[in-house]
Amino acid sequence: MAGRNQPPYRPRGGVNFSSSSSRSFHPSRNSTKNVNSEERKKTSSSNWDNKAAINGDIDDIQNLPSLVGTCPFMCPVEEREKRERLRDLAVFERLYGNPAKSSPSLAVKKFCRTISGKTLQDSDVRPLSVLEDTLSYLSNLLDSTEHPFEVVHDFIFDRMRSIRQDLSMQNIACSRVVSMYERMVKIHIISQHKLRRCSGSSISSLSYLNMEQLTKALATLFNLYEANRTSESIFENEAEFFSFYVLLHLDSKTQGTGETLSLWFRRVPSHIMKSTEMNFARKILRYFKLGFYKKFIHITESEASYLQYCIIEPSISEVRALAISCVNYGGYKLQPFPLAALSKFLMMKEWELESFCNDSGLQTSIDEEGNSCLPTKQTTLIHPKGGLHKYYPLESERFDRYTVVSNALKFHSMYVNNFDIK
């Protein structure tokens, strides 16, 4: 892997960067796994270019001059001073809360859709080492509790797009950039997980835009894997990031790449297709499509990494809704189904299951022994338009252990153990 002092690699043909976390938050290292010549040929001939990943952060990147950034700060001095005059500082950039004063340690360069090549200078662009430090700074803000998460997300979202923009303008595509894109994908996934727990009129649009950038960042990451692949190695975290892309297809509203998943599978190298992460993702997708709700829930609980769970979580509600629908229509009218058994089956607390049933239009009752039950053959079952928006986590000791750890550690430290909470 390239070290911090190694000059950035710039491929001849360039890499298509997108607009806008595997198990390790550390820079990816090429593993020593061997890939046979046939697989290498398949990999090198695969074209990972995708329209969703081409120049999404810059309107006219082709007309920009070749740049090598020299800005030593997270935000160029000229931009910081201009935004101070205009009082255009985010809450995280204000020195002692002053909306007209910032500092080099607080201000972060904003994303700009339109960039003029005539006025752009090297001093306006941050070099790779500064971009890495900026991303680490943004990562540490993800767990901030001083402001509502939608405020935190909006700031990180915009400043990460600016990071990708600076990388695009310099056409940097070394293994250090691979690590940065892996980290940014992780942040998008965790942000989506946190946004589901927020309320407000803007959450829907924030989630949509976040998913859009997540898909584009993944497409660019796949390009970077290919640009940095050596003849005898693969990237350590590659398989899990490919699994993220598969799991995103659980949601029918996911903004895909324009091709079917079956065609995409044909271009995935066989050593990735055979990996544990991809086998898990394909099983989950198959169980979801076939309605095997018991297998879906229990394999998610026993095998999913935390990041995989963050992607799968919305589909768990759909699977649970399918399960109670089957119980309602398939059960005996004179034999209400005990909620205690059903809650264990669906891996949720009994009071959460009762609330979930009520949200779905079903009424619960109390039997002669004082136990809560779900009467069957009810005709009031509904599937809310747009899906159920309240999420009930899996009742899992494994994920509970993660919650305890995540509350005790800083964001960047949470990934040291590869999210392995088994």
From TrEMBL:
Compositionally biased tracts (Low complexity): 16-31
Domain SAC3/GANP/THP3 conserved: 74-364
CC annotations in GO: cytoplasm; transcription export complex 2
Pfam families in alphabetical order: SAC3_GANP
Gene3D superfamilies xref list: 1.25.40.990
Annotated region (Disordered), positions in chain: 1-52
A single GO BP: mRNA export from nucleus
Xref: PANTHER family: 80 KDA MCM3-ASSOCIATED PROTEIN, GERMINAL-CENTER ASSOCIATED NUCLEAR PROTEIN
Protein name as catalogued: Sac3 family protein c
Biological classification of the source: Eukaryota, Viridiplantae, Streptophyta, Embryophyta, Tracheophyta
Gene this chain is encoded by: SAC3C
